[in-house]
């Protein structure tokens, strides 16, 4: 009976939206490649590879109401009338097990260097790493939430170095 109750509790958490709110005593710093970590520390819904790697998983959990999007803009001091210049992005993307909680959301500018398009490519890379077993979900979640830009550049450097080594080997 005890195990049944624990299982029921875990399942309830798995299907319930995570609602955590970053408490704001100041306006968050906006228009940077990385979100203000005091406002957007990240929030995880799951670290289970068997869930994250299911095709179509993100469609089952993606839900950020307009009221929450407006609150994200408000916390970052950006008028919502400028929303077309931004993507309300998940710091830890849904494909990496992130949640829709406001602590995981930030207005990511389309108009800055290393913005949303760069991050999206890195998220796709991390998702592939999780699903092919090269990296744990927890490791990917840590990389994306601490300093995704640093890890993305390291990842790109390693790929370039490996490609250079392979090409050098082919020429010998």
Salient structural properties:
mainly alpha, two-stranded antiparallel sheet, 6% strand
Describe the structure.
The protein has 172 residues and is mostly helical. It has one domain. The chain contains six helices and two strands. It has a two-stranded antiparallel ribbon. Helix 5 crosses helix 6.
Summed up, the helix count is 6
> Can you tell me the residue ranges where pLDDT is under 50 for at least 5 consecutive residues?
1-25, 160-167
Q: How would the global form be characterised?
A: globular
How far apart the termini lie comes to 66 Å
Order of helices and strands: HHHHEEHH
Percentage of β-strand residues = 5-15%
**Structural Rg:** 18 Å
The figure for the number of domains is 1
Mean pLDDT: 81
List the helices and strands and how they pair.
Layout: H1 2-15, H2 49-52, H3 57-61, H4 66-75, E1 86-90, E2 105-109, H5 116-131, H6 137-171
Antiparallel strand pairs: 1-2
Helix pairs in contact: 5-6
In short:
It is built from six helices and two strands, in the order H-H-H-H-E-E-H-H. By secondary structure, it is mainly alpha-helical. The protein has a two-stranded antiparallel sheet with strand order 1-2.
